[in-house]
Amino acid sequence: MKTYYKTEEWSIIEEGFSPEDHKKSESIFSIGNGRIGQRANFEEKYSGESLQGSYVAGVYYPDKTRVGWWKNGYPEYFAKVLNAPNWIGINVKVEGLELDLAKCKISNFKRTLNMKEGYLERIFTAELENGKIIKVLAKRFVSMANPELAAIKYSVTPINFSGKISFEPYIYADIKNEDANYDEKFWLEVMREVESNAGYIIAETKKTAFQVATGMRFNITQDHVSFGFDVVTYEKEKYISNHVTVDCKKDQETVLYKYVACISSEYYDKKELLTKVKLLANNAASAGFELLLNDHIKVWDAKWKESDIIIEGDTAAQQGIRFNIFQLNQTYTGEDERLNIGPKGFTGEKYGGSTYWDTEAYCVPFYLSTADESVSKNLLKYRFKHLEKAIENGAKLGFKNNAALYPMVTMNGEECHNEWEITFEEIHRNGAIAYAIYNYVEYTGDKNYLAEFGLEVLMAISRFWAQRVSYSEAKNQYVMLGVTGPNEYENNVNNNWYTNYIAKWTLSYTIEVLDFVKNHDKQHYNEILSKWNFNADAEVKHWNEVINKIYLPEDQKLQIFLQQEGYLDKEQILVKDLDISERPLNQKWSWDRILRSCFIKQADVLQGLFFFEKDFDTETIARNFDFYEARTVHESSLSPCIHAIIAAKIGRKEKAYEMYLRTARLDLDDYNHEADEGLHITSMAGSWMSVIYGFGGMRIKNGELHFNPYVPAEWQTYAFKIKYRKSLLNIKISRKNIDITNNSDVKTIFYLKDKQYTILPNEVIAVSNDLKLSVSE
């Protein structure tokens, strides 16, 4: 762990330029708006080590895999959100010498991510090789108000001279991905056009033929006044630019405003792209930087009013959770059901920007409570629209009767992960998709979703589970062989407890939903059964047999659930006994050594106890937590949050806080030494869960809202906002009182420490820790 950034409640601040930390900072200071995103690369040239990153949602390339593609059922490609045309570029020359922070003497460097208002700002002083000193201030944002726009304000002030400064704003489309399997480039030029003060490029992806149009307009001011200047246009394949040379006086600020439009053929006919991108860029330039920024800030203000968490007395914890919420809100807005949430969002190339089970297990709860229910519903509909592909995927692996195996990694519904132990074995992802349907319906009360979309997905997943188990004559039970659980430091194991349990649960829940739809929407029920040739009597009978006879490994002596058969045959070493020099294991040990060890990458049994805690008493949860946490190295970003929530539930308050801080500051403090590759966006939803489900004790029980909160010792108070069935509740928790404000016009019933309360529209309820009530308007 390395604390590098200044700790402030609303900002991430880097003071002083450290080239060795630059790629990490490019990740940390990333900005986006759900449609386009940008790593915090410099606008001016930088010849040092950097990971260039501009991304456009939904635009991907099927990069042929290097292994296994020739095997039956093996994915032929790994889908990747592409590093798209670079629109931030502004080359700068001072008296003919290029500004390059890798070659200058830099002082007063400060980079700030303003999370409250959603912009990136950078200021520094540079002394060039010719002795000229300039002060630079760069400020940019990707508009949340108009997701097709971005803007840059780039100012240069001569400090010790008067002379000529040249600017070259450009768009560059000859881009490559660092993770390209065959070192190829993925973009073709469709057209380019350059004119005075403007330029446009349309590029097309190979194979998938997505087109992205990127356009720019710019103007320059001195002393806050626009003026005329000569422009030299330049173009070559996949590149357009304007060259402008300006006479600058000592201490006089010259500002270049660059307005960018970025659109794709996902939203416009290809024939319209050039006309539309020109119009957008022109309109942005006419509106001006400050107006665009103000509109952008208003959107962020509204988002914070619905999703902020306020922590008093612990600045590091406060900064961490806001950083997580900020990244989640700028990664996914839920306006397009074709989009989903990649583990790295718009911050890096790792994991390809594709969809994993992280969405259902971690992100859905965040969006359920902080956004309109249509946002989380769109995440679920994403999987519904991929049902046919999931059935095709199951068929490739030999499953019949419309059994669906959803992909571990996907962009369009096809499986594209190319590690066999994940692709074929980490099948628990099917259970997370089923659980998300349950979670959504329980939270929103939207039972219509079951007949409209949910039941068909549940039936196909249950058909998969019913075929994936096999009957063991020796055990006289159903078993599941050759799987990988959430703990990926185990492969090809038999009877992973979590996988078996979530398979059993899915079968039970599907039967429950079948009965509900049959009783409440008989016509739709009959249509679904006919569509999928579903024999309710025969299939449900078999499912019940599996439910009643599935093998769930446990150890009677230790009274714990076994992660998988044979887990206790491993040498049992605790994490506390590992030499710190051997961590993280995935960077220090061979894969063979990891697989033979007892060490756990992330919550496995505990993932199941989190999902299904109502099925187990607190003592059972605590025994399993104490056993498995001691063996868990938390080398998955998804691990600390689950441990924080369970630790809070069972009263391990110090451990809960430790795990919370680790999940909330995972990237800021670079716990796993990999922030340079991009941020852990999906696990950030787990950080939010650590506060709300952990310290706040929020649960939905039988469709009813419950809280059982406490204040961590390190905090004075904390407050969070919850959107629940058309109401917006603000809950503030101190050591003396729990204050609940209903910021909506909807009456809401909730439970506090199992006692029922009703809060009227715009009412404030104050409850002391001994549950005495006071009410105010």
Please give the largest β-sheet: 11 strands, antiparallel
**What is the overall pLDDT average?**
94
* CA-based shape: globular
Q: For the CA atoms, what is the radius of gyration?
A: 27 Å
Helix and strand composition category: alpha+beta
Tally of alpha and pi helices: 20
Unreliable stretches: none
Q: Into which percent range does the helicity of residues fall?
A: 25-40%
The rounded distance between the terminal residues' Cα atoms is: 47 Å
Strand content: 25-35%
Q: How many β-strand stretches?
A: 35
Notes on the structure:
With 777 residues, the chain is an alpha+beta fold. Helix content is 32%, strand content 26%. The chain contains 20 helices and 35 strands. Strands 1, 2, 10, 11, 12, 13, 15, 16, 17, 18 and 21 form an 11-stranded antiparallel beta sheet that branches. Strands 22-29-30-31-34-35 form a 6-stranded antiparallel beta sheet. β1 and β2 form a beta hairpin.
Characteristic key phrases:
single chain; eleven-stranded antiparallel sheet; alpha+beta; 32% helix; six-stranded antiparallel sheet; 777 residues
Can you summarize this structure?
By secondary structure, the protein is of the alpha+beta class. It is built from 20 helices and 35 strands. Strands 1, 2, 10, 11, 12, 13, 15, 16, 17, 18 and 21 form an eleven-stranded antiparallel beta sheet that branches. A six-stranded antiparallel beta sheet has the order 22-29-30-31-34-35. The chain has a five-stranded antiparallel beta sheet with strand order 9-8-14-20-19, with no helix packed on it.
